[in-house]
Design a protein that fits this description.
Blueprint (H helix, E strand, L loop, with lengths): L2 H11 L14 H12 L3 E5 L15 E3 L7 H12 L6 E7 H7 L1 H10 L3 E7 L34 H6 L5 E6 L3 H12 L4 E7 L3 H4 L6 H10 L6 E4 L2 E4 L8 H5 L10 H21 L7
Parallel strand pairs: 1-2, 1-3, 3-4, 4-6, 5-6
Antiparallel strand pairs: 5-7, 7-8
Helix pairs in contact: 2-7
């Protein structure tokens, strides 16, 4: 069998078509390929309009692509319709970017979590409003350059996973496309859990983060290894670190991206201190109940 035939066979069986309008190196297509391999054909997807969600348009399953401000509540309607028909065999996925999830529709995500809607809510986080001009969002990290924070963002990244966990939902987790087996295991667990599940995935954006697209997976892997993006899950109120890498200096992660090239040594030391503080707290609560 020739190489072209192998590719044809692969894409025929895949739930996502080859080729998207995403930028080279974007983590969106890789994320959805991993997700759909686990969720399977009985899946309905609602996604908003960020650039990383362009991959949704290539998905060969029922999907809806509306506006940022309809995150979670539109999917809630789909969940209600399926329940009315007695369909318990279909997984409903609601997905939004960082701006939609953490800013524009945070109240709607919170409301769906409060009601414990039976759906998977995914945050596809590339840490800025990339599709409208690289403006900062609530999930842009401290110090990062964007077109609206040319000297670096002064506020910290909003901790949405912990905010959602306080709703006492069955399952909350962080993930990375640099660790696909960890991501797959978490998608599988979310699929098998009744109620509201929240999955927060940081994905690389070479355009907005300003690095070579060939380094995409390497850069987000550095984020995990530096504990700038720790991998954990909160199941029924108990926190568990799913990866405890030997810590690399956060400077390695920051200097891999030109969006941080303006930072002073003092600012890098401050970020390292904040990362260390969070790491120590996570290690302290690893295996313990954190939601009362």
């Amino acid at each position: 069998m020739g190489l072209n035939s192998l590719f044809d066979e692969y894409y025929e069986k895949s739930f996502i078509q080859g080729g998207t309008t995403c930028c080279p190196g974007c983590g969106g297509p890789l994320l959805w390929r991993i997700i759909l391999e686990i969720l399977g054909s009985k899946t309905i997807i609602y996604g908003d309009g960020p650039c990383a969600m362009c991959a949704v348009r290539n998905i060969k399953l029922p999907n809806f692509n509306l506006h940022f401000s309809f995150i979670a509540d539109t999917a809630t309607g789909v969940v209600a319709a399926l329940a009315a028909k007695g369909r318990e065999d279909i997984t409903v996925v609601s997905s939004g970017g960082d701006g939609a999830t953490a800013d524009i529709s945070l109240g709607k995500v919170s409301a769906a979590a409060e009601r414990n809607e039976n759906m998977i809510q995914i945050c596809v986080d590339n840490e800025a409003y990339m599709n409208t001009g690289i403006q900062k969002s609530g999930l842009t990290p401290y110090g990062a350059w964007t077109t609206t924070t040319p000297l670096g963002k002064e506020a910290p990244k909003k901790d949405v996973p912990m905010i959602i966990a306080q709703h006492n939902v069955p399952y909350v987790t962080t993930a990375s496309v640099a660790y696909p087996k960890d991501l797959q295991a978490k998608i599988r667990k979310a699929k098998g859990t009744e109620g509201f599940k929240y999955i927060h995935v940081v994905i690389p954006c070479p355009t907005g983060w300003r690095f070579n697209p060939a380094k995409s997976v390497e850069v987000v892997r550095l984020g995990v290894q530096a504990w700038a993006w720790p991998l954990y899950e909160i199941e029924e109120g108990f926190l568990r670190l799913t990866l405890k890498p030997r810590q690399r200096p956060v400077e390695d992660y920051l200097k891999a991206q030109n969006r941080f090239r303006h930072l002073t040594d003092e600012q890098i030391q401050y970020i390292q201190g904040e990362v260390d503080r969070k790491r120590e707290r996570l290690l302290e609560f690893d295996g313990k109940r954190i939601i009362l």
